[in-house]
Amino acid sequence: MRQWQLESGKLTLNNAPDPVPGPGEVLVRPRAWSINYRDLMILRGEYGAPRPVPLVPFSDCAGDVVALGAGVVDFKPGDRVMPCFLQGWIDGPMRHNHHGSDLGFGVPGVLAELRAFGAQALARIPAHLSYEEAATLPCAGVTAFNALRGLQPGQTMLTLGTGGVSMFALQLARAMGARVMVTSSSDEKLARARALGADHGINYRTTPEWEKAVLGVTKAGADLVVETGGAQTFQRSVNALAVGGTIALLGRLTGITQGVNLQPLVYKGATLRGIFVGSRTDLAELARFMTRHNLKPVIDQQVSFAQATKAYEALAAGPFGKVVVTA
Asked: What is the CATH number of domain 2-136+297-326?
């Protein structure tokens, strides 16, 4: 089989032996993969402590079961499946021992023509989704889904930017009956976000104090802020938050947050909640939610497996939604 490998900031396409599923494992042939901003950070050497190299990148894929290891009874050849991001987090709250099981960094990733997974770490693809669409769910989709937990109909959700997580947040929040606000540096992207159901868009280049715009529109602030930005946005997110609101902290596109005044969170009785994707159960729950509401992920661009390096370039350029690699 062919697989991509990352070493010293360089990606190469190599040949490797076909994996054989061991006891309790399922051999999957991916039909599509999706890239996350985390993958770009790993390529640049900006993500966590160094890992053994070469490393197979990417955490997200969707494909077909082709063979079963001993003892597997929940799947059969031909089943359409997708792996969860943290292979060791199957259910329940996050625990320390779940760390290090993240595909594409803690353990080898999925950007290969075959990959064996533990059967307990796979979820079924919703029938209404293509492989390309399903490949966007395990990281970005689950992250947004968990960020929105507790959001109630009629409340206001603010999401920053128009990348993969933010577009999932927009669609999921609308399905939950919430009002949605979106920021972007592009009026064209804001128009596309409104076409997807966003109630209000703010261009942060023409309105740099966008938190004041949020307060002006809502009067009370946002009940939930999906904070993807980090250093250059976090203080404004705190200021835009409503009394009793929540900030779901999940990204650092503009660096690690430092020197922030957290006192407003105290005055507002607010909650700051870190989100690190989710469990296999969360992935299956998201799949059911998307089926129930007939939701389809927003895909901006597709590139071929042989040209997977172009996915990194597309992501760095700032897509509207997700970038997908196809078999």
From this structure: 3.90.180.10
